[in-house]
Design a protein that fits this description.
- This protein folds into two domains: 34 residues, no CATH class; 120 residues, Ferritin (Up-down Bundle), CATH 1.20.1260.
- It is built from seven helices and no strands.
- α4 runs antiparallel to α6 and α5 runs antiparallel to α7.
């Protein structure tokens, strides 16, 4: 029995240190270290260089801006094909034109370059491409007729594309993309 335990003191106390004895880890210290370990691991993982560089992939808003331009062009075609729906479709055309401009402005704000795609070459978000593949004669298959039903499908696809991006976007971009998704969802419901 050493002097520290004889005096009724814990082995990790000041008397042990003054006596030149090495303190040992007691249960309390081990538990404290075990509780601090996950927090330390989180800090170390957060400070590691394992971040994903955003410059490796294109800005996700580019596809949304292209889809907005394509929707605006389709809306203009629907109005040209059936002027009786102009009162229903023209506000959608104006909104999608504003969406494209706002998305382009956001892309430029973060240092990107807005898309130069024309509405005829910009596929809607959620589609595979601009038009059907060329036929056996070497001419492109005609594009589907510009109808209100096709407009509704395009706007619904744009809404799904925008809503799908929201969870992965930085906070400063969520409001813009969520408002685009909400607007497209509203127009898809109105055109139904």
């Amino acid at each position: 029995m050493n002097d520290a335990t004889a005096a009724g003191r814990r082995p990790g106390s000041r008397a042990v240190a003054q006596a030149g004895l090495r303190p040992t880890l007691d249960r309390r210290r081990v538990l404290q270290l075990m509780l601090a370990l996950p927090a330390a691991a989180t800090v170390v993982a957060g400070c590691s260089g394992a971040t994903t560089d955003r410059h490796d992939r294109p800005d996700p808003l580019l596809a949304l801006a292209d889809a907005a331009r394509a929707d605006a062009a389709l809306a203009a075609a629907v109005i040209a094909a059936d002027p009786t729906v102009a009162a229903r479709i023209d506000p959608l055309r104006a909104a999608r034109t504003e969406h494209a401009a706002a998305l382009d402005a956001e892309i430029v704000r973060v240092g990107g370059v807005p898309s130069t795609a024309t509405p005829s070459t910009a596929p809607a978000v959620g589609t595979t491409g601009p038009s059907a593949p060329a036929g056996a004669t070497g001419t492109a298959a005609p594009a589907p007729a510009a109808t209100v039903a096709r407009m509704r499908e395009a706007v619904a696809a744009s809404q799904r594309g925008a809503a799908g991006l929201v969870p992965d976007l930085p906070a400063e971009r969520v409001g813009l993309v969520a408002s685009v998704a909400a607007c497209c969802a509203t127009y898809a419901a109105v055109l139904a």
